Input
Amino acid sequence: MTRPENGPITPIYLKIQPQMAWPDDTFFYVMTADGLFVCRNHKFFRSCVPARRWPSELARQDTFLKVAYPKMPRAMIERIVGFFSAVADLHNSEAGVLLAWDEPAAKLHVVVPDQVATVSRNWHGDVFPIGLKYEWPADLPDGWVILGDVHSHVDHWPNPSYIDDLDETHRAGVHIVVGRIRSEPPEFHIEAVVDGQRFVLRPEQIMEDYRCRRDEVPRAWLDKVKIKTYGYYQDEDSGAATTATAHPSQGGNGKSFSIESGGEDQGGEDHGSEVSDVQLANIPEPDQYPDSDAQDARGKAR
Ligand SMILES: [Zn+2]
Output
């Protein structure tokens, strides 16, 4: 039992051993693994009862989050939107990237994981996004940590879906959803998760000013996206090893996530598009983008 110095008027003891010496106070609180208890030493009894309210001497406290994340450079977010846009044009599917912080170099990087996007195809051949699943990259360089992720909701609003909530609440970090991808600018919705609590962030807290998507999308990024089609013409499965589901997946070591589109009007609007090799050929194929996207965030932040 530890009695805090300068405690409130009513003593609050911490029960940190299975057995505690019973205090002499006539009225006191005990903080335990089972919650806060209110305890009494009465002339005719000794009691310990779960407290129905916190001690009135305590001051109020609001939940808050103040962030100092490195800001995504403008070129980085514009290229990511360009990537999502190209995937939407090619497959009408979602796509996602991870944001990695390179601690030794103090730089932010885009990591595009192998991913399986699921789509449904109706009788008319219209394709609608269903969900997205990707594996956590196992081969990140030393000193890189994943700060967050960005994924597309294609034509839907970027509000996190039920599946997003399930996935993200257990993943600390920043989660950016890009919706209305065919508008310029698209819609961004950004949340950060800390200790299971979600906080909505403003774009300027996490990225530089977005102006216009970049059309040059690395072929290597596009090649990471495999498509699994449900509905008619199921023969377009990409043959990826992973099975996409519409439910959160804790595959293997809990590093596998599925993300579902936030839309409820799937099958409504006619925004389907056919997979086309012509469109693919029109997308240039730059080499690598590792460091051109990076940012010396620390230098700027200080
Ligand atoms: Zn989502």
